[in-house]
Structure formats: structure tokens, C-alpha cells
Amino acid sequence: TDRDDDGDLVLNGEADALTLLSIKLNSKELVEGTDYVLEGDTLSIPSEVIGDDSPSQLVTKVKIEPEKNTQLSGLYKSGAMYCTQCEAIGFRRITFYPDRPDNMAVFDKVRIEADKTSCPVLLGNGNKIDEGDVVENNDGRLRHYATWSDPFPKPSYLFCIVAGNLGSISSSYTTQPSGRKVHLEVFSEPGNVSKLGHAMESLKKSMKWDEDTFGLEYDLDIYNIVAANDFNAGAMENKGLN
What we know:
By secondary structure, the chain is mainly beta.
């Protein structure tokens, strides 16, 4: 947990991007003004509510509108896809969180759910550990989900998800010296798939260069790249999903 000098838990948000719907601590619904204070872009939970340093579970439910996110920071819509850009402080536009680069955490199970027709591709950091269909919408359209797990601690600015109607090219790379076979895939909107070959070859050369120069092997089973038409940076170094 990220505590201030008084022992309070302080979470970063962004008032113009988030609407807090509910917050629970260890399954108990918290009450604004009594159990927490929401002031501007900061949500604070007093130390007497948090208790000692024993493990706790905090669940926040928020409303965001990625289709109206013209900052291209946090979760936003770009053409046929929803995607994220969290560097340097974009994660706080997704939910309340200790959004600082020195706060390292394992994003163990990130579940992405969307309409299966409009968003057949669901991508996240790390390795995909589960996927499947879920109950239909009221309008009869099928939804589906994918769960991604990144076992390595990272700051929130390296968090990434993508959901959309995307085309892709795929290949593989065998790391050295351990011989891990890594699935490689480069995605874009369907009309740009013919332009992805150079990115795939650059990825393979980069992985080999890391091995030859630094002795560093890639440590996941999947490496995905997504080319987005709307992006506020040249590229990002998100783990397993660039």
C-alpha cells in the first residue's frame, strides 16, 4: 500500500475522466465522508479504516468514457480499437491507484471483456491464461473475455490493454540459449496489415540484439505489437504488448 505520513492510503485519480461508483475494502462498502475522502483528483482512506499492514483487498468501481477521451491518455478509442497509453500518469484516468513509477505491482489476472463482434481481439500484458464466451447482451449479441497475467512487477504506466477488430501477422522466435519458443504477433486495423512485415522483422532483430549485447532473453511466451493510428507517443515499452 501507498501511505502518507499519517498512514492514510492515498490514491490518484483524475476528476474529469473518472466517476467513482463504489469502493469496497475487504468486501465492506465504504461511505464517502466517513470511510474515505474524495477531493479533486485524490481519494484518501484514513489509517483507522485501513487498519494495520495485514493483506487487504480494495475494489473500486468506476465509470469512464473512452470514446470521449481526446487526450489519448488512459483508455481511449482509436478507430476500430480501444487501447491504453499510461505513460507517464495515464493509469489514474482508468481507475484510482497509487499511480507513481516507484510503485511496483504484479498485475496477476487482468480480465478484459467486450462485444465479440466489434472487439474479437482482446490483448493485455504478459501471457493469456484464460478466454471464453460469456452470457449474451440483452440485444442478443455475444460477449467474450480474455484473462492476461504478467508475473513480473511493474509500475502502472506500463499497463496496457487493447480490444478491437484487428488484423495481424504472426511468426515465432526461439530464444537463446534456453530455447524458449515465443509466439510473435503484430496487429493493426485490417486495412494496414500489409504494412506490418517490417515491424515483425525489426522485433526479431531486436530480440536477438538483446541476447547478443546484454545476454537478456525474453521471458514470456507471447510478444504482441499493436499499431494504432492515434497515439500520443512514438512507442511504448509495455511488457509483452507494445
